[in-house]
Design goal:
The protein is an alpha/beta fold. The chain contains 12 helices and 15 strands.
């Protein structure tokens, strides 16, 4: 997998220009193009632009034109709210929401009050899984991700678990679900520490959280112990570096979460630590064997010059699905009609794209998520991401790759 990411386009102007005879449909995208998720956001932006290209090619004969307005949330919920208000003022009523639950939590109150569809490619917090609101998510919630993590811990024979997490809706949601999973799977949460994810705070707060855990588990580290890490890129780099320097936790098995998955920044800053800890992490994924994914893969590589890791397939499907709904109902300015159609399609599985058939549950979240399990191995002297296996949610079972089984049990 290449670490190259597309260049972000720092503009709020539409990516296409309509002629006077065309009917224009406006779509928005709120993305953290700067901050601790920027490498992922650039993939999402390029995928969203690819979806606009495909929509314009598909509906050109009907005289339809699709425009995408992009705003940078800076990974800040307050900025995300301001940028959503900017899109609203431009007449945008259907938006690719901020990637994270932190952003979505800032955007959601305004969206609910003003009837703006938010559709997120990576927000997973169970705290935001609410019926009858305007937030939709094309990925499974933390409850589903934690079930996958629980399967990993069971397979490893882990009985004692420590958790270090970002104190935000994403981290709090995972902590809540991990508590439930501990009761279901029979492992113990022996140490928990959180840290302020604000860029001004985490350089000091994250190491303090790591040291707190280290002091509490110094007599427990062994084959039946693991550390679950809930971080993003910038803060995750600090967490991993501190773990690598810690005399206790540097010997522990590491479990990663989706906010870390396949990050080139984490690989560069903490790849050696992840490899030593034989990290196994989760990520909502797209099945690579479908014709729809293979078609998307070829076009994304050609346009963006990078591997379409999460959230690229999800971002593509969000914009493509919303655009197809607009074309079907014939409007982009009637949010009630758009929302009703989105819910109908989600219930019936009417849309099939890069991530497969999109089914949404009663809370508007992905009902049929797929998960890939990832690790980090040293190849040619360098840390490299590998696919360890896949988690079947319905069967509660891990299917290993050939390389993954040896890595997992090594």
């Amino acid at each position: 997998m290449t670490s190259q990411t597309p260049q972000a386009t720092p503009t709020t102007q539409p990516t296409t220009t309509a002629t006077p005879t065309q009917k224009v449909f406006k779509l928005g995208a709120l993305l953290p193009l700067t901050g601790g998720f920027s490498s992922y956001a650039k993939l999402a932006q390029c995928a969203a632009n690819l979806a606009i290209d495909d929509l314009n090619a598909e509906y050109a004969n009907k005289g339809y034109k699709f425009e995408l307005y992009v705003e940078d949330t800076q990974l800040d919920p307050n900025v995300a709210l301001q940028k959503l208000q900017t899109l609203y003022a431009k007449g945008v009523r259907a938006v690719h929401a901020g990637l994270t639950s932190r952003e979505a939590s800032g955007e959601k109150p305004f969206a609910d009050q003003n009837k703006v569809i938010l559709f997120s490619a990576w927000s997973t917090s169970s705290l935001l899984a609410l019926p009858n609101d305007w937030l939709y998510r094309i990925v499974g919630t933390d409850a589903k991700q934690i079930r996958a993590i629980g399967a990993i811990l069971k397979e490893l024979g882990v009985k004692n678990v420590a958790l270090i997490y970002r104190k935000d809706p994403y981290g709090e949601g995972l902590y809540l679900e991990l508590q439930k999973e501990a009761a279901n799977r029979g492992f113990k949460l022996v140490s928990v520490a959180s840290y302020d994810p604000d860029p001004k705070a985490f350089p000091q707060a994250a190491p303090e959280a790591v040291r707190k855990i280290s002091g509490e588990v110094k007599d427990l580290v062994g084959p039946d112990f693991a550390v679950v890490i809930v971080s993003f890129e910038d803060d995750g780099s600090v967490v991993l570096k501190t773990i690598g320097q810690d005399p206790v936790l540097s010997k522990a098995r590491l479990i990663g979460t989706e906010g870390m998955a396949f990050s080139p920044i984490l690989l560069q800053e903490g790849g050696d630590v992840m490899a030593k800890g034989r990290v196994v992490g989760t990520a909502n994924w797209a099945l690579p064997t479908t014709p729809e994914y293979q078609d998307f893969y070829k076009k994304f590589k050609a346009k963006c010059g990078a591997e379409p890791i999460t959230p690229a397939p999800q971002s593509y499907d969000i914009i493509k699905m919303l655009g197809e709904i607009m074309a079907t109902v014939g409007t982009d300015s009637d949010p009630d009609k758009l929302r009703a159609t989105l819910e109908q399609w989600g219930k019936e599985g009417r849309y099939k794209g890069a991530t497969g058939v999109v089914l949404l549950d009663e809370n508007g979240d992905r009902a049929n998520p797929n998960f890939v399990l990832w690790g980090v191995a040293i190849k040619d002297g360098k840390p490299t991401y590998i696919e360890v296996g896949y988690y079947d949610y319905d069967k509660d079972k891990i299917e290993f790759t050939t390389e993954g089984k040896q890595y997992f049990y090594g």
